[in-house]
Amino acid sequence: MITVQDLNISLPEFNLSDINLSIGESEFFILMGPTGAGKTVLLEAMAGLVPIRSGKIFIGERDITTLPPERRDISLVYQDYALFPHLTVLENITYGLHFHRIDKAQSEVMLTRLLEILNLHHLQGRLPVNLSGGEKQRVSLARALMVEPRVLLLDEPLSALDPGFREEVRNAIKRLHQSSNATFLMVTHDFAEALSLARRAAVMNNGRIEQVGSIEDIFQRPSSTFVADFVGMKNLFAARFKGTKAVVHSLEIELGREPPNSNGYIAIRPEDIVISREAIASSMRNSFKAGVTGIFDQGFYYEVHVRAGEVTFKSLITKRSVFELQLREGNDVFVSFKSTAIHNF
Amino acid sequence: MKREPFFWITVSCGFVIMAFILLPLIELMTAPSLTMLKETIQDKDVVRSIWLSIYTAGLAALISFILGTPLAYLLARSNFRGKQLVEGIIDLPIAIPHPVVGIAILSVAGKNHWIGQVFSELGIRVMGSVTGIVMVLTFVGIPFYLNATKNGFESISPRLEKVSRSLGASMFSTFFRITFPLAWRSMLIGIIMCCARAISEFGAVVIIAYHPMIAPVMIYERFEAYGLRYSQPIAVWLVSVCLALFLILRILTIRSPKEV
User: Fold this and answer.
1) Structural domains in chain A plus CATH codes
2) Do residue A129 and residue B260 have CB atoms under 8 angstroms apart?
3) Within 10 Å of residue A294's Cβ, how many Cβ atoms?
4) Which one of A136-145, A284-293, B247-256 scores highest in mean pLDDT?
C-alpha cells in the first residue's frame, strides 16, 4: 500500500541509495538496522520531511512524491514522543483535527476509542511535563491515529521506555494495529518486539536496504554477512505451542514453561547449542540425534550446522572442540540445549 | 567545614564587582533631592526627550521583531553555506564603535549617496529627524533581538514542527500554533535586550540627530552646560522609567509553574 521506488537521498553527511520497499495494506512492517543506517531519514522522507534527490513514493496508486507533509496522510511517532509541551493531553491528541475535515460525531467515536485502548481518560487535562514516559508515548500514538492516517510511521517508539512500560506500550501498539486500517511501519532494534508485532521486515545498513522478507527468512537465510551478523541469534523457528512444548516440524522441544500464545517463534543462540558424540546425561531436557551438514571456519570459532529431522541448528563451537570431537560433515552426533536457553515469542 | 582559600577568592571578586556596578548607580539615584526631581519632571523638554527615547527604542524593537523574526528562524533551522558569515555580519554592530555607526549610516543616508538622494526625493529626512534616530537605534539593537530569538527557536525541537506538519498543518499554521507559542518568551527577552541597547545609545545618535533630543543627548547637554548636578535628575528619571518598563516585561515573562 505504501511503495518506495528507487529512492535516493543526499544529505550533507548522509546518503540513502536505491531504496525499494513495498508494504501491504494494513500490514505491520518492521525496519531494522544499526544506529546510523538511515532508518529515521527513510521514515522522514516517506513523510515528506526530508528532500529527496530521486525516486518515487506511492500510497496505493497515488503518487505522493511531491506532496507537502501535511497532505500525505502519514502520521509519525518518535522515540522522544515530540508532544507539544504547551498543550494538554487532549489538545495534543485532537491537534490534527484542526486541519482535517472529519465529521464531529465520527471523531468523537475515534477519540473515545483511542482514549480507551490507550487508557488515557484520566490524563486528558494534564500537560506533557507531568506524564511518565509510557503515558507520553501513548498520547503520541493517540495523536498520530486521531487523524486516521493511511500510514503510521513509528521510529523506535519503545526504545526510550523503561522495560515495564515497554511491554504495555507494545501491547497497545498491537491492539491499535488490529483495530485500525492503517499500515504500520516501525523501526526497532529489538527482535522480540519485531517478532511479536510483525511478519515481514527489512534490514538496513549504511543507507541501503540489505534484505526484505519474512522475519523468519531474515534469520534463517540472511542474504549477506552483514544481516547474519546483525541478527546474531541464528536459530529461529516458527513453532506451534502445545502445553510446555514447542512443536517445530517433527521435533518436540521442551520449554519448561507454558507460552501464552498457541503459534509463535522460538529462538536459540548458536553458542547455547551443544554438540556431542554420545547422548549427554545431564539436565538438558532437549537432546536430538542429528547429522552434521556443514562446518564453517569463523576465526576463533567454527559454525557447525547439524540437521535433526527437517530442522537445521547452527552451533558455535571452539576449534578445540571440533578437533576433539573429530567432526566431519556427515557424522552422526547429538545436539542438545537447555530449556532456559530457548526464547519464545 | 573549613573553606579553602580558592572559595574566598571567588567570593571576594564577586563582592568587588557587585560594588563596582552598584555603588555609582546608588550614588546617582540618591544624589538629587526630591524637589529637584519634581522640578525636572515638570520640565517639558525633559519629558519630551525621555518619551522620545522610549518610543524610538520601541520602534527599533518593533522593526527588529518584524524583520528579524523570519531571519532568526532561518538561522535556527537551516544550515547553508555562508551561514557563519551571516551570523558574523549580524554581530558587527555590537563590535563597531558607536560614533562610527553614526558616521557609517550618514555616509549612506546623506546627500552624497544615491540612497540618501532617493530618500530626500521621497521627502524622508534622516539627519536631525526621528526617522534617523530610529534607523540608528535599529542598527545597534537588532543583533540582540536576532540572537535571543535565534536561541529561542533553536531550543524548540524540529520534531515538534515535523509532527505538526504530518498531522495536516501547513508551515504557517505550524509556526503560529507550535513554534510561536513556544518561542515568544525568547522573543520578548530579545525585544527587551534590543530596547535596552537602543535606549542607551548616545554616540551614534548624536552624529545623526542632536535634535530632536533623546534623553542621553539631553543628559550630556545639561552636563556640558550646567554640570553634574543638573544632569543627574534626568538620568534618574530615565533609569527609573526604563527599569519600571523592563520589570513589567520580566514579570510578564515569568513562567507559571505548570508550564514547561
Assistant:
1) 2-231 (3.40.50.300), 235-344 (2.40.50.100)
2) yes
3) 13
4) A136-145
